[in-house]
Specification:
alpha+beta, 10-stranded mixed beta sheet, 5-stranded mixed beta sheet, 12 helices, 24 strands, globular
Length: 576
């Protein structure tokens, strides 16, 4: 896939030098255990594993730009952190907001609402619910003293296009005549490299990409890592999974969020609509959600995205993003002994049930900054020291307090500015799209591109079903929002139907116009469920089927004869 510079793309990934955090094990919450538990919805816990990227398509005023905000997960030594981002243009590199990721993930996480109802003579109303949850390399670090300075041009085949610092990171944007020269320069500059990276990087170099190389600043620790953003011209986001495969695991989770004026769809990968009858509604759909997603993607050829939410971005809470009371200037002339009080007055330390130890910092970058500028003395616990600085005034390290850019400057760069910008992004955009995929390294052979599309319908993150219990001995079944019905098995579980596809539809979404359906499994789903549901019917004659027309009017009469039945309604015609 060769791209010209007329199409501006940023590709985002972690190289193998930055290992991803281990995937969390799915967890199952306890059942309600009582009656009338229809308090739904059941929310899948916000899953922070895998890669999450927030794209903001900024079309307000002048030429359009895209910002790609990347959440970084890394476990390892600070010296081993190295990150290469292929881009088509020299971008701005910015500090991003962790709260933006937290709030966006929480606002769009799939939820499952199960309503319980009964038919027949139940001898009083009894309900229940089950709450399920799901999560749905060596070398010393150096500085930028090696190689050409900005504006010095070509040095031994390597062209340094930009360099700078962003929060805890330093970066350089470069290109070269060959990837070997680029790798040699990065090695000399202290960037840990993976031996599998050069052939993949060569592909990007051949396609006229340049590289943004990122590492932690000298002396920075892993707990200082924060999200980064890059801003570049154009409106076609890209995720460079070709490079990601170096550090990827099987069925790696990738979530891509898009803020803008329209819903966003994949350009060169299929889009999949899930078959909700494949969810385990008995034990909780969250338990097999990823299984259904993975099967649907496999049915689409192994590479595809599912839309988990598409609608207003007003669902994203502004809480914790930014507060006007955050004032970096207040720390410029402040004595170090008064720093904690100032943080507390600005709402950046508080107490409440939200904290595991009752009290804590309300922004993830505050504690790392205190570690830098007000390091706790030996044998004194960090919080004990910071919350009573006047008690340990003689032990404050004034050299640390006066070192580097200064607490006020770093506080502005890592706390105030990213938070204010996150609010600006949400206010400038009107729509939010959440796309999700599972992908393994051997499938990472084509970078997905994305584009805004006018006129597509929204997608609700809540998926609902009604559990119908027949108190006269008939089968229990689930009825989905579109009228689809699935009877549970005789032992009370969801049926395993090999002829029931996981993908309801597989489609391509063009730049304009409706989605182009490649595979519509509606008829296959109908047939599989109809054939199965008939085996769960009971009636006066074997094979007798009773339609839903006039169902409610027949209930009383049928119950007199002890007849319970089950049938499946025809679903409404599927639209593309």
């Amino acid at each position: 896939m060769t791209r010209t510079r007329s199409t501006s793309i940023a590709c985002l990934t972690l190289t193998a030098a930055a290992s991803l955090a281990a995937l969390a094990t799915p967890q199952l919450a306890e059942a309600c255990g009582g009656t009338f538990c229809d308090a739904g919805p059941t929310v899948m816990p916000v899953d922070q594993t895998g890669e999450s990227i927030v794209f903001w398509i900024d079309e307000n005023g002048g030429d359009p730009y895209t910002e790609a905000h990347i959440q970084i997960e890394y476990e390892g030594e600070a010296e081993r952190f190295a990150w290469i981002i292929p881009v088509m243009e020299v971008p701005e590199v910015l500090v991003s907001s962790q709260a933006l990721f937290d709030n966006t993930l929480a606002a769009t996480v799939p939820t499952f609402t199960t309503t319980n109802t009964s038919i027949g003579d139940c001898g009083g109303s009894v309900g229940f619910c089950l709450a399920a949850s799901f999560d749905a390399a060596g070398g010393d670090r150096g500085s930028f003293s090696t190689g050409a300075a900005e504006g010095e041009g070509d040095t031994d085949g390597v062209d340094i296009l930009d360099r700078g610092q962003a929060g805890a990171f330093e970066y350089v944007t470069l290109t070269g005549d060959s990837i070997d020269e680029v790798i040699d320069w990065l090695d000399m500059a202290g960037y840990a490299q993976d031996p599998d990276a050069p052939p993949i990087l060569q592909e990007y170099l051949d396609e006229d990409f340049v590289f943004v190389a990122v590492k932690l600043k000298s002396g920075a620790e892993v707990d200082e890592i924060h999200p980064l953003a890059i801003r570049y011209p154009g409106t076609e986001p890209c995720i460079p999974i070709r490079l990601t495969r170096i550090a990827a695991i099987d069925d790696m989770r990738i979530r891509a969020f898009f803020l803008g004026e329209e819903r966003v769809a994949p350009s060169n990968w299929p889009h999949v609509v899930l078959n909700h009858s494949r969810f385990d509604w008995v034990n909780g759909p969250a338990l097999n959600y990823d299984e259904v997603v993975g099967l649907a993607i496999d049915e689409a050829g192994g590479r595809a995205f599912v839309t988990e939410y598409a609608g207003t971005d007003a669902v994203v809470s502004p809480n914790g993003l930014y507060d006007p009371s955050w004032d970096a200037a207040a720390f410029e002339t402040l004595e170090p002994v008064d720093v904690f009080t100032a943080l507390e007055n600005q709402g950046l330390y508080s107490c409440g049930l939200a904290f595991e130890d009752n009290c804590g910092f309300t922004h993830p970058q505050v504690e790392p900054l205190l570690e830098i500028y007000l390091p706790p003395p030996d044998n004194v616990a960090a919080l004990e020291f910071w919350t009573c600085l006047e008690c340990y005034a003689d032990l404050i390290d004034l050299d640390a307090w006066n070192a580097g850019p200064g607490f006020a400057s770093d506080f502005y760069d890592r706390v105030v500015l990213p938070g204010s910008h996150a609010v600006d992004m949400l206010e400038a955009a009107s729509q939010l799209t959440r796309l999700y995929t599972l992908i393994s390294p051997h499938e990472m052979v084509e970078d997905p591109l994305f584009h805004p599309v006018e006129g597509l319908d929204g997608v609700d993150s809540d998926i609902s079903a009604t559990r119908v219990n027949d108190c006269d001995g008939g089968p229990t079944y689930y009825e989905l929002a579109d009228g689809t019905q699935i009877a549970v098995t005789e032992d009370g579980t969801m049926p395993a139907l090999p002829d029931n596809p996981a993908a309801a539809r597989i489609e391509q979404v063009p730049m304009t116009g409706p989605a182009q359906v490649e595979t519509d499994n509606g008829a296959a789903i109908d047939a599989a469920l109809d054939d199965y549901n008939k085996t769960r019917l009971t009636g006066p004659e074997p094979g007798c089927s009773i339609g839903r027309a006039g169902l409610e009017g027949l209930l009383a009469m049928l119950s007199l004869f002890g007849i319970a039945f089950f049938s499946r309604a025809r679903r409404p015609e599927r639209s593309s």
